[in-house]
Amino acid sequence: MPIQPASRHVVPVALVGAGPGGADLLTIRALRLIESADVVIHDRLVSDDILTLAPAQAHVIAAGKQGFGPATPQDAINALITGHARTGARVVRLKGGDPVLFGRLEEEVAALEAAGIAYEIVPGVSAASAAAAAIGQSLTSRGRNSGIRLLTGHDMQGFADHDWRALARPGEVAALYMAKRAARYVQGRLMMHGAAPDTPVTLVENAARPDERILATTLADWPPALNEAGLTGPALTFLGLAPRAARSRISQTIQELA
Ligand code: SAH
Predict the structure, then answer these.
(1) What angle do CA 24, 13, 25 make, to 5 degrees?
(2) DSSP H helix total and E strand total for the chain
(3) What is the pLDDT of residues 82-113, one digit of tens each?
(4) Which atom of ligand 1 is the closest one to the Cα of 20?
(5) Which biological processes are named by the entry's GO terms (predicted)?
(6) pLDDT, position 10
(7) 88 alpha carbon – ligand 1 mean position (Å)
């Protein structure tokens, strides 16, 4: 059976996952959409080598939010997307990782629906998948953890609240996005709910990028270890998941050399 023809802007707007790092982790569908875009509106996580795939004449616009830092208001981003789509331009809204995870996808979809503009969503490789690959681990494993929680470290109200009691149970595994600044808060909540101090905590900074770094620590040592490591890039934090032993030794050596 022939392979389905690639989707090349059959609809005015594509909400596209750029993956966690370089262009080689884009999907082919994402690549084709970027290559045929008139306007690319991207967030700050999208790497330069991906943006250079847009046609030279395409309009490439940075519009994103940064943790607690500077932000383009969501309404302004929505207006950018719908405004360009109304001119007949083929718009790619490019988001780091997978747009269906912590990407404010629903807000943009709602704006498109309100404006009567058709759209498609193209999934991407999320940071949790890339970070798991980096530490040589599976996100789920028979007999270890039959599920995983994907959580945010902070939300619009500040540090995000979660089911700490459930998270503190032995064997629980969670992937925390946007959690660098929440380390002490999450540590406090988990300890309060009886989590073991030696619960593994693993951070992967810049997963799937050339400057990827792994920090393997424990719940007890997490905040000071994080302080000392001075991570500046985006980082994914695993609770209850340690790097495979060999990987851990490699990263320790790297840290000792650094
Ligand atoms: N939609 C994205 C997540 C956006 S929220 C996805 O699916 O990956 C932004 C957070 O994602 C960052 O604060 C960080 O926790 C995580 N993140 C994104 N890219 C990352 C990378 N290359 N390495 C580690 N964490 C990353």
Answers:
(1) 10
(2) 9, 12
(3) 999 999 999 999 999 999 999 999 999 999 99
(4) 22
(5) methylation
(6) 76
(7) 31
β partners of residue 61: 41
Least confident window among 117-131, 135-149, 207-221, 239-253: 239-253
CATH number, span 127-257? 3.30.950.10
Domain ranges (residues) in the chain: 13-122, 127-257
pLDDT at 169: 96
Q: Which fold has domain 13-122?
A: Cobalt-precorrin-4 Transmethylase; domain 1 (3.40.1010)
Mean pLDDT over each residue of the chain, to the nearest integer: 91
Q: What is the CA(231)–ligand 1 centre distance, in A?
A: 14
Q: What is the 238 CA–ligand 1 centroid distance (Å)?
A: 12
pLDDT exceeds 80 at position 55? yes
Catalytic center residues: 43, 65
Whether residue 77 contacts residue 94, with contact meaning beta carbons closer than 8 Å, is answered with no
Is residue 206 in contact with ligand 1, taking CB distance under 6 Å? yes
**Residue nearest (by alpha carbon) to ligand 1 atom 2:** 97
Q: Are 203 and 237 in contact (CB under 8 A)?
A: yes
| Cβ of residue 235 lying under 6 Å from some atom of ligand 1 | yes
